[in-house]
Specification:
By secondary structure, the protein is mostly helical. Helix content is 56%, strand content 4%. The strands form two sheets. It has a five-stranded antiparallel β-sheet. A two-stranded antiparallel sheet has the order 1-2. Strand 4 and strand 5 form a beta hairpin.
């Protein structure tokens, strides 16, 4: 009973969540449409030559709202009487509906303060929000058909769902924490985004510099379009809405393909060729003059170069621990995504302004996209490999260092020289060599190394023989026997340090256990007599 009772409640909760998401989408569409309607109605009220009444103003607002989604409009009130298409999207207006859809999808999946409320799946949230938005958009398309700016049904069926679904998907992705599939894919997407931002920023700077250079012509065009303040405010708002388009035009100009100014004119850094068909508008005053390009126009090529360098640097920094093949593939993927984004923006920034010569106006999307891919691949891939190789180097501070040899101690050198001198003198007069490395025992006698045991056994005196001779040279017969270097009563404290600076002060400098440190050296050193032979039995 418990399972049967809870199952309908859970299903009902999810259905309510989907219905709420659909309502959120419809509200987002209404907010965007209402904001544009307020601006258009305000401009109509302030205009001294307001024609068509408020219904016409609402039709214009509906047409501009659809144009912000990429839908082409058809102008019916032309001088020739023939309908003319209008396909250039004011890209700043596009930001408003895209942000509203994004926020609706994000809030649908956001648990909020009450984490126990039911939420739809990410796919269900995207579908519900987009569905609610498109229901309102379909009604606006039908409404615009009776106005002066009806929508083109083909582009309305293509671009409107694509823009809405893409914005809703981005909102759901944000609500899920912006996950990225894989390390290389994430790096490629981030690098493409950085390259795109750099390209658009450079394009905006190039357009602004050109507009400032032709400020007089732009001011004359602005004053010629409208004389009263309401008309100038309307033109100024339109200029602001087209500023992102100008940045894309500047980026396409620096990429190389440039943009068309009608079907018979093309503007590139190499020059402006053909007969341009340019309507009077302040932003179009920034177009280059006719003729061949100069170094001022060629400098714009630094914009896509900088974008490619940023793209490659981002990939190279992330690929320090990767193989070279992975770094190259990631850089190529970033260049592909970068080119695809440029192609979409170029297609939105340009379009038809009429029939005949004005049927092509602005950047050509596939040419701009292909040029962006070439810049990203030819300049970005080598930079990525170079940054990767630079990041894999071993810094100088982390390299293993060899300790420099220390200078010898002067006392050690002096002591070694003195010992060598005494050893040479002892060798001349027949004194035995110094003690072996075996060391000295506690009683002053030289310890015998293990390998020298047989020789020591052979040299040992026979039983009953005296170990120390009684009549050794330099020793009187009545003198006490030698018991060690530290117990000798005749040790001279002034000759010990000279003989051995690092040893005992009263030790024997010649290594002879029978040595007595007298104040004079003996005239001759007589060895002890050989022991008597053992008795023969």
């Amino acid at each position: 009973m418990t399972h049967v009772t809870e199952h309908p409640l859970v299903q009902g909760g999810r259905s309510a969540a989907l219905a709420t998401a659909c309502v959120r989408g419809g509200v987002a569409a209404g907010l965007g449409l209402g904001a544009l309607a307020v601006l258009v109605v305000a401009a109509w009220i302030s205009s001294p030559y307001s024609d068509g009444g408020p219904v016409g103003a609402l039709h214009v607002a509906a047409g501009i709202w659809l144009l912000a989604h990429g839908v082409d409009l058809v102008r019916t009130d032309t001088l020739s009487g023939l309908p003319a298409p209008l396909g250039i999207v004011p890209m700043l207006l596009t930001a408003l509906p895209v942000w509203l859809v994004h926020r609706a999808a994000r809030d649908t999946l956001d648990p909020g303060d009450d984490g126990g409320r039911p939420r739809p799946s990410p796919g269900g949230a995207v579908a519900a929000v987009a569905g609610g938005y498109l229901l309102v958009a379909a009604a606006v398309v039908v409404y615009s058909e009776s106005g002066p700016l009806p929508a083109d049904l083909i582009t309305a069926g293509l671009w409107l769902p694509a823009v809405v679904t893409g914005a809703a998907g981005a909102g759901a992705w944000t609500a899920l924490g912006r996950p990225l599939p894989g390390r290389q894919t994430a790096t490629a997407l981030r690098a493409a985004g950085l390259g795109l931002v750099t390209l658009l920023g450079g394009g905006a700077v190039a357009a602004a510099v050109s507009l400032a250079w032709h400020a007089g012509r732009a001011q004359a065009s602005f004053e010629g379009l409208a004389g009263e303040w309401s008309g100038r405010v309307t033109v100024l708002l339109l200029v602001l809405a087209l500023l992102p388009n100008t940045a894309v035009w500047g980026a396409a100009y620096g990429l190389g393909p440039g943009f068309t100014l009608g079907t018979g004119a093309l503007a590139t850094p190499l020059g402006l060729v053909g007969d341009p068909a340019v309507p009077p508008f302040p932003l179009l005053a920034a177009l280059p003059a006719e003729g061949r390009g100069t170094w001022v126009h060629w400098v714009t090529a630094a914009v896509p170069l900088a974008a490619a360098l940023v793209l490659g640097r981002r990939v190279g920094r992330a690929a320090r621990t990767w193989a070279a093949r992975e770094a190259v593939l990631t850089a190529l993927g970033a260049a592909g995504g970068y080119g695809a984004a440029v192609a979409v923006l170029a297609g939105a920034a340009g379009g038809p302004l009429g029939t005949g010569r004005l049927s092509a106006f602005g950047p050509v999307w596939w040419q701009a996209g292909a040029a962006a891919v070439l810049w990203g691949a030819c300049a970005g891939v080598p930079v990525a490999l170079g940054v990767r190789a630079w990041g894999r180097r071993v810094p100088r501070s982390e390299r293993p260092r060899t300790a420099p040899p220390h200078a010898p101690n002067p006392l050690v050198v002096f002591g070694a020289a003195v010992s060598a001198a005494f050893g040479a003198v002892g060798a001349v007069i027949g004194v035995p060599a110094a003690a072996p490395p075996g060391g000295t025992e506690g009683d002053g006698r030289t310890a015998v190394a293990p390998e020298a045991a047989p020789e020591a056994a052979q040299a040992a005196p026979a039983p009953g023989a005296s170990a120390v001779p009684e009549a050794a040279a330099g020793q009187s017969p009545g003198s006490p026997p030698y018991s060690g270097p530290h117990t000798s009563p005749h040790a001279d404290p002034y000759t010990g340090p000279v003989a051995d600076p690092f040893g005992d002060s009263f030790s024997d400098p010649f290594g002879d256990p029978g040595y007595e440190p007298y104040d004079y050296l003996p005239a001759a050193w007589e060895p002890a007599p050989p022991p008597p032979p053992p008795p023969v039995e």
